[in-house]
Specification:
By secondary structure, this protein is mainly α. The chain folds into three domains: 8-102, Fumarase C, Chain B, domain 1, CATH 1.10.275.10; 107-355, Up-down Bundle (Fumarase C, Chain A, domain 2), CATH 1.20.200; 364-421, Ribonucleotide Reductase Protein R1, domain 1 (Orthogonal Bundle), CATH 1.10.40.30. It is 61% helix and 5% strand. Strand 1 and strand 2 form a beta hairpin. The N and C termini lie far apart (64 Å). The model has no long low-confidence stretch (mean pLDDT 95).
Length: 462
C-alpha cells in the first residue's frame, strides 16, 4: 500500500490552507462592534448577567485597542478572527468569555461582520465618486465653450463642446452611485440571530441588536441570511462597472496624450519616464488604471463561480468571498483617487482640439440637415454630401473654399446661406435636452452641481 509521507512542513501547509485570519482580521472593528451589541442584548434579555456583559464588553474594548496599537498577537492555528478574539478574551476575563457565544454561530457572526464592513465601504466609495464628479464639473466649467471633434468608430464625426464630452463621464459615475446606493440598501440587513442555519433557541431581541448596529432591516429567513452573498456579488459587479468607466476614460486620456492627437498634456506626477528613451513621458498612471480592471473582473467571476451550485446553507467555500472583495475595494478606491488627480491636473490643448474639429467633413451632417430644411429628402441630401465631401477632398479644398456654383453642381437647393454653417452653428443647432449646444451644456452643469452638492451634504452624516 502507498503511504504519503507527511512532515512538519506539510502540516504547516495544511494549517495555512484552512486559515482565514490572515485576511479576515481586516474585519476586527466590525467583529468587536457586533460582539459588544450581542453581549448587551444577552444581558438585556437576562440570558447572561449584566455584570458578565460588562466584563465581556470591557475585554473587547481592550482587545480593540491592542489590535489598533499592533500589540495583538494573531495566532494562525486559531483559524479565524472570531476564535482569535475569543481566545484573547478568555485570557483577559476567564471563563466568562465563553458566554459571549451564547445564541450565536460563527456563521451568522461572519455574515454580520461582512455586512457592517461593506456598508461602510459603500459609503466611502460613493464619497470618492462624488469627489471625482465634482472635479469633472469644475473642468467642464473651465472649458465650457472649447470645441473638439466627436468620434464614432474612432473616426471624426461631428463637432462637440469639450464640456459636453466631460459631462458624459459625470453621467457614467451618476449611474455608478445609484447602483452602489441600491447595493447599500440590500446590504443593510441584520443577520445575527440566524444561528448556524435554523435560528437560535433563546429569547433574543434581534430588533435591539439591529438598532444598536444601525441596520434598517432584519433578515427573515435564517438559511438564506447565512448563505447569502448576493450583496457582495452586487458590490463586485458595481465595482467592475465603475472600473469599466474608468478604463474608458483612461483609454481616451492615453490616446489624447499621444503626439498624434496632442489634445491633452498630463501633469508630470501622473507620467513616468522611459528607462531607455530620455525624451518620453509615458501615461503610466492611466495605463495601470486601465489594466487594473482585470483583477476586479476576476474577483467578480471568482465569487460567481464559488457560489454556483452550493447547497444550503453554509459551506467552507464561502470563506473565499473575502480576499477578492478586499482586493477589489483597494483597487477601486485607489484608482478613483488617481483618476481624480489625473483629471484635475491635466491641461487641454484647446487650439489643437479646435483645429482637429475644423476637419473638412465635420460639417457634412449639418449641411445635409440644411438641405432637408430646403425640402430635400434626407437620403438624397446624405448622398449629395457624401459626393460633395469626396469632391472637396480630391480638389484639396475645404467645404468653405468651394464656390456656390460647385455646391449647385451637386444639388440646386444650395444657396448663399450655406456658408453661414460653421462649428458654432453646428453645436448650437443641437439645442435639445442632452444635446451639445452651449445652452444645454450650461443647464446640464448647473443641474449636476446642484445634484452633487446635495449628495455630498447627504453623505456628511456618515
Amino acid at each position: 500500500m502507498y503511504h504519503t509521507n507527511i512532515n512538519n512542513s506539510d502540516n504547516e501547509i495544511f494549517q495555512k490552507f484552512t486559515e482565514s485570519v490572515s485576511y479576515d482580521r481586516n474585519l476586527f472593528k466590525q467583529d468587536i462592534k457586533g460582539s459588544i451589541a450581542h453581549a448587551k442584548m444577552l444581558a438585556k434579555q437576562n440570558i447572561i448577567s449584566t455584570d458578565d456583559a460588562d466584563k465581556i464588553c470591557s475585554g473587547l474594548y481592550q482587545i480593540e485597542k491592542e489590535i489598533i496599537n499592533n500589540k495583538f498577537i494573531w495566532k494562525y492555528e486559531l483559524e479565524d478572527i472570531h476564535m482569535n478574539i475569543e481566545s484573547r478574551l478568555q485570557e483577559l476575563i476567564g471563563d466568562i468569555a465563553g458566554k459571549l457565544h451564547t445564541a450565536r454561530s460563527r456563521n451568522d457572526q461572519i455574515a454580520l461582520d461582512m455586512r457592517l464592513f461593506l456598508k461602510e465601504t459603500i459609503v466611502d466609495t460613493i464619497k470618492l465618486l462624488l469627489e471625482l464628479q465634482s472635479t469633472i464639473i469644475a473642468r467642464a466649467e473651465e472649458n465650457l465653450d472649447v470645441i473638439i471633434p466627436g468620434y464614432t468608430h474612432m473616426q471624426r464625426a461631428q463637432p462637440l463642446l469639450l464640456s459636453h464630452h466631460l459631462m458624459a463621464y459625470f453621467n457614467m459615475f451618476t449611474r455608478d452611485i445609484t447602483r452602489f446606493e441600491n447595493n447599500y440598501s440590500e446590504t443593510d440587513v441584520m443577520p445575527l440571530g440566524s444561528g448556524a442555519l435554523a435560528g437560535v433557541p433563546y429569547s433574543i431581541d434581534r430588533e435591539f441588536i439591529s438598532k444598536e448596529l444601525g441596520f434598517s432591516k432584519i433578515s427573515t429567513n435564517s438559511m438564506d441570511s447565512i448563505s447569502d452573498r448576493d450583496y457582495i456579488l452586487e458590490f463586485l459587479f458595481n465595482s467592475a462597472t465603475a472600473m469599466s468607466h474608468i478604463s474608458r476614460i483612461c483609454e481616451e486620456i492615453i490616446l489624447w496624450s499621444t503626439q498624434e492627437f496632442n489634445f491633452i498634456s498630463l501633469d508630470k506626477r501622473f507620467t513616468t519616464g522611459s528607462s531607455m528613451m530620455p525624451q518620453k513621458r509615458n501615461p503610466d498612471f492611466a495605463e495601470i488604471s486601465r489594466g487594473k480592471i482585470g483583477r476586479v473582473y476576476g474577483s467578480l467571476i471568482g465569487l460567481l463561480t464559488i457560489i454556483k451550485g452550493l447547497p444550503l446553507t453554509y459551506n467552507r467555500d464561502l470563506q473565499e468571498d473575502k480576499e477578492g472583495l478586499f482586493d477589489t475595494i483597494e483597487t477601486l478606491q485607489s484608482t478613483l483617487k488617481v483618476m481624480n488627480g489625473i483629471i484635475e491636473t491635466s491641461t487641454y490643448n484647446k487650439e489643437v482640439m479646435l483645429k482637429a474639429a475644423q476637419d473638412n467633413s465635420m460639417l457634412a451632417t449639418d449641411m445635409a440637415d440644411y438641405l432637408v430644411n430646403k425640402g430635400v429628402p434626407f437620403r438624397k441630401a446624405h448622398e449629395a454630401m457624401y459626393l460633395l465631401v469626396d469632391y472637396a477632398n480630391s480638389s484639396n479644398k475645404t467645404l468653405k473654399e468651394l464656390s456656390l456654383d460647385e455646391y449647385k453642381n451637386f444639388l440646386p437647393e444650395f444657396e448663399e446661406d450655406v456658408f453661414e454653417i460653421d462649428l458654432n452653428h453646428s453645436i448650437n443647432q443641437r439645442n435639445v435636452t442632452g444635446g451639445t449646444s452651449l445652452e444645454q451644456v450650461k443647464n446640464a452643469i448647473k443641474n449636476a452641481k446642484i445634484k452633487t452638492e446635495n449628495k455630498i451634504n447627504e453623505y456628511k452624516k456618515y
